Amino acid sequence: FPSHDTTDLDALLDRTYGSPGYKFRLKTLRVMMGSLRKGNAGMIFGRPECGKSTLLASEGSYLASQLDCPYLHINNEEQSDSIKIGYIQAALGKTIEEINQNRKKAMDDFLAITKGNIRLMKDKPAITWQEIEEVCAKLNPGIIVIDSADGCRG
Questions:
Q1: Is the pLDDT reported for residue 63 higher than 70?
Q2: I need a surface site. Which of 1, 14, 113, 115 has the fewest CB within 10 A?
Q3: DSSP 8-state assignment for residue 45
């Protein structure tokens, strides 16, 4: 198999940081984790109702705006409609009351900001890894979020 073991620092840095990655919205994530690049994986852990989905919506709406391909959120935990509203609020930086004042403009602005990239696989509490692979083969997403990996089977 091909080896990437090298002592050539230029080659290592070029392969790792040679192309710009996707940046996080939160400064702390940008500083601590750097940019998100192909092949990166991360996990967010937390107790129920502590803001994990809100964090995903905030960062995800920002990341989706940088992509030229789908951002896939596989929802196997909460109601998909509330998650999508969270993405809309995060992208626009608006409250529900502000969004309700002009729903059409809010949706148009959301789609413009995120380039229509956010795809939400809805309400599938017992999804299998095979189903995830099938969706990924169809969409070819740039970023994949799985809301609760321990809810995946197979």
A1: yes
A2: 1
A3: -
